[in-house]
Amino acid sequence: MPTPKKxxxxxxxxxxxxxxxxxxxxxxxxxxxxxxxxxxxxxxxxYYHYPAKDELINALFDRYERALDELLRAADGVRNVEDxxxxxxxxxxxxxxxxxxxxxxxxxxxxxxxxxxxxxxxLRHKGxxxxxxxxxxxxxxxxxxxxxxxxxxxxxMVVVLTYWLSYEYVRDPRRALEPEAAGAALARGAWHAMSxxxxxxxxxxxxxxxxxxxxxxx
Length: 218
Hints:
- It is built from eleven helices and no strands.
- By secondary structure, the protein is mainly alpha-helical.
- α4 (53-72) runs antiparallel to α5 and α4 packs parallel to α8 (113-139).
- The longest helix is centred in the middle third of the chain and has 27 residues, at 113-139.
- The model has no long low-confidence stretch (mean pLDDT 91).
């Protein structure tokens, strides 16, 4: 007879439900009352675990930051455009999982001092990872870049990685952040970030990237 699964801890359930609500409706539109109602628990039970809404936001951001740091370590293994394509897709998928942070980024930074400071670390770490990616491609001969060219290119790629979902939302506010639109939106983001490499790629790598990105050139 299989051992019954242990019930998930209430604090973890609260974070999972909160993340889903934040992603669906945007953090400013989700109250702690709505969260407790969605969970079927009393507001007092919610406050016991997370006495303020900012604590929920910070806990979710901590999860995101840990997952991001782990993922960014893979940048030093990139040697060709297919590796880079996969790496950027994985970054965009993580952004999608925590899309409320990017959907409401400026609002969150203006209200939450911890996010204001820590998101600067996020940008810095993304920049370091993209520079490692470019160095790997350069070392393998897939791109030809001078140091003077690499730095603004890395910055431009980080800007696309950070603000792509905002662009998609402006482009199609009614559908862009719905789950059924996610795959195409993330692939377009990866393509536009990778397209910044086109002037620097060797002919074979350029052709391979164009083939990978052909369905996502919208």
